[in-house]
Design a protein that fits this description.
475 residues; mainly beta; 4-stranded antiparallel sheet; globular
């Protein structure tokens, strides 16, 4: 599974900490992931397994993204709190939003393995300030607010929790949920739900915010694993927390648990967006344990909130590309965004262990399109490294589709798909160094025309076995 080095345009990488980063040419856009305010959404890439963890930001433009317009950020970057240590997992999750209210998106990075001080729970969340010269104004860090908040920073979100029109930072620990009031969060400003809702035997992996119901503000889907210590087993767990003014935590329901359809296998297997265009976000959850090779489930939002059950698809569902075969991990990663520009979100699903041309675990990504009646399999698409126009080569163990993101980064009104392949080998001697691709959105769906690919060496990093570059994309 030794891969050739991916072909990309080469240019000098921008200095660490944003020196020389592209400056905004107008008032900040207020897009939730436009760090330099130039009107284009940017692409943040988390690589938590590399020397304590890194985040690489590629700045969007009319021509897409390129390593020539990028910044690398670690805990050793000037102005960023902390220091890079092997256990930190800086970049385990990445999100963004205008935390300080200056009109520019700020980078929010979870590091759930951070060792703070002896006797204090692990984990931290770092906020690095955006601006016309992004990431040059330093940042701030938050650590666990209580003794039971171990793995603080396991997941983060920035959305309007209480319905007042201003975003709130939400942070998960392994078994805890915390939120902060409007404005710059303070270390002593973490608030727990007024009604506890997470069962003691649940380990949380992620949180996704969305307008899933008629409630003022955002609702939050938390997901992870329910552990059965006596049986030595675990099963998926998905819950819905209603936002809005009032007692946070009081309105909570369990959507799925165990091995039933509708669960979520991994932190990257949950996403939300308006698939049918009715004004409510819909929830997509991937579950590799359902079907022979995996599945995903769509629950449609409505005024009353998300239903417990939804529509589940496998690769044997009519119109879905591929065949439901064992161990293909269909649904290991999902992403939701409007690739066609028709006003309805589409769904990308990764099958990171898919066999391609007789080679095992090459990986594949399927795109299914949204419509007024909901998700449709008509005109479904399939992409892998043997697809014409996609850079690289289909080799065993690449795991193309291990991470996904659908967002418009070239400003043409159509979401572009970022794809990670954690098992891509980068020469020389880069076993599982990892790589990323970007496929552009088009009126008919995704296209491999002008597809780009890059790996850690394109950003000035040496080849390292097991780096798994692009393990995470910013939401």
């Amino acid at each position: 599974m030794r891969a050739r080095t991916l072909a990309v345009a080469t240019a000098a990488v921008l200095a660490v900490a944003g020196l020389g980063a592209p400056a905004a040419v107008a008032a900040p856009s207020a897009l939730p992931d436009d760090f330099n305010g130039d009107g284009y959404r940017d692409l943040a890439i988390g690589t938590p397994k590399a020397s304590g963890g890194t985040v690489t930001v590629l700045f969007g433009s009319a021509s897409g993204v390129s390593p020539a317009r990028s910044v690398n950020i670690t805990q050793n970057t000037a102005g960023v709190p902390g220091a890079s240590e092997s256990v930190d997992k800086f970049g385990e999750n990445v999100t963004s939003g205008d935390v300080d209210g200056d009109g520019y998106a700020d980078l929010i990075v979870g590091a759930p393995g951070e060792v703070v001080t002896a006797g204090k729970p692990r984990g931290s969340v770092t906020i690095v300030w955006g601006g016309a010269r992004p990431f040059t104004s330093g940042g701030m860090a938050l650590t666990a607010p209580s003794a039971d908040a171990d793995l603080f920073g396991e997941s983060t979100s920035f959305a309007d929790l209480d319905g007042d029109g201003t975003g709130n930072l939400v942070v998960l620990g392994g078994n805890t949920f915390w939120w902060y009031a409007d404005g710059k969060p303070a270390q002593d400003g973490a608030r727990a739900p007024e009604t506890g809702f997470v069962p003691e035997n649940v380990h949380l992996d992620g949180v996704v915010a969305g307008h899933f119901s008629g409630t003022d503000g955002s609702d939050y889907v938390v997901h992870g694993r329910r552990l059965d210590a006596d049986a030595g087993t675990s099963g998926t767990y998905v819950g819905l927390l209603r936002g809005g003014p009032g007692d946070i935590g009081h309105h909570y329901s369990v959507l799925a648990e165990g091995a039933a359809p509708g669960g979520a296998s991994w932190a990257s297997a949950v996403a939300g967006g308006d698939i049918n265009g009715d004004g409510y976000d819909d929830l997509v959850t991937g579950n590799t344990a359902v079907g022979q090779g995996g599945s995903f489930t769509v629950r449609y939002g409505r005024a009353a909130g998300l239903p417990v059950t939804g529509t589940t698809y496998t690769q044997d569902s009519a119109g879905v590309p591929g065949t439901d075969e064992p161990y293909e991990n269909f649904g290991a990663a999902v992403a939701v965004g409007d690739a066609t520009g028709d006003g309805r979100a589409d769904v990308a699903v990764g099958a990171s262990y898919e066999t391609v041309d007789g080679r095992r675990s090459v990986g594949n990504v399927v795109l299914l399109k949204g419509g007024s009646g909901g998700l449709t399999t008509s005109g479904a698409q399939s992409f892998h490294q043997a697809t014409p126009g996609v850079p690289g080569a289909a080799e065993a163990g690449d795991h193309f589709g291990s991470s996904l993101r659908l967002r418009d980064i070239n400003g043409n009104g159509r979401a572009d798909l970022a794809v990670g392949a954690l098992g891509e080998d980068v020469l020389p001697e880069g076993y599982d160094d990892g790589a990323a691709w970007v496929l552009r959105g088009a009126a008919t769906g995704l296209t491999s025309t002008y597809a780009t690919a890059f790996n850690a060496t394109d950003f000035g990093y040496p080849v390292v076995d097991g780096r798994r570059f692009a393990d995470v994309f910013g939401r």
